[in-house]
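Progress against Task 2.4 (sequence-to-structure conversion) is shown through the following example record, which the project officer requested during the mid-term review.
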Amino acid sequence: MSTQTVLIAGGGPVGLFCALLLGRQGINVRVFDVNATLQADPRAATTHPATLDILAQAGVVDDMITRGLVAPTFQFWDRPTNTKVAEFDHSILKNDTAYPFVVQCEQFKTAQIIMERLSKLPNVEILFNHEVFSVEQNAHEVKVGVRTHKGETSFTGSYLIGCDGGRSTIRKQCEIPFEGFTWAERFLVLTTPFDFEKELGYCYRSYFADPDEWCNCFKVAADGPPGLWRLVFPADATVPEADVLSDQAVHQRMQKFFPSSTPYNIVHRNLYTIHQRVASTFRKGRVMLAGDSAHVNNSIGGMGLNGGLQDAANISEKLADVILNGASDAMLDLYSLQRRTVSIEFVQQQSIANKKRLEAKDPEQRKKNFEELAAIASDKERAHDFMLRQSMIAMQRRAHSIGLEEVHT
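Structure tokens generated for the chain above:
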């Protein structure tokens, strides 16, 4: 077992996955989380094939499938005419991945599953109610200041991984710019037990283009059958949050989009500010960034948490090589180059393109979008290439194509 300790700020799925991957190799890990316990955050649910391949190596996929839902297909719809434009099936990727489907498993369940594995590792310590507020480092170690209910203290380790979210204290302490922009509108998320598959024929992942108000509609397992359906709409940022979330506004929005003879039972509602940003570097000395600390994007296509879990696998492999095998710390620069490159070339570009496709207003542009999607779906080769990107397999292949010789060039 290594005598070095890796510190991790943030006890969400990304931070915990880093801890699991490092801890399984005998590396001492200490995780700090500001919350009192794991958070029941329902936001991210979609887990793509490329991420499932990674998670399988840690033995967590079977539990995710058990506690989630398998979604083999996804659909694009024209909402005004209620016409299905195109359907894509992950089975076309059967020779590219061991998991040619998506698993809809809410992120808090993923965190719980990982935590169950961590509880069996004596070299991993999870410290809740511990808020990292400062970072100092030198050539040999990194020191973090931490607030607890007993006061302030500090911890020292060999390396620090910042997995503390989009408002990352670690990123700010390291003075790493967070480059990009914030969308003018917010995203409204509504959850209901209404069965959109049974009643309207929608699959577990359906995207609705509309010139006035697009929508994503997808199913999650929740606490078990029959599950819940989550809908995402754009919301005007100038309207007060209380007005957007009011019963009247919520039900008007649902009835406008999906008219129903009976009122919808809305069991959860929330409003989010949406950013498209990437850190200027994912490494500064002995500090690395992963997940939302390093990159954030809109949720259309479900790529945010997936990218974070892929970050975790990448940095954990390289950091273990440095700690256990004496590999050059240039491997950590390679991590930054690989993951930052694909965050920009794939996650940012793809999520922005997904949004623009759904919100297009010009009739000719909408027609062109629909014809293009239909043409891709009907052409096996084009559909395969399209699905390699949507499943994030192409993104992983691109990351692996970037070698150490490209660092500092």
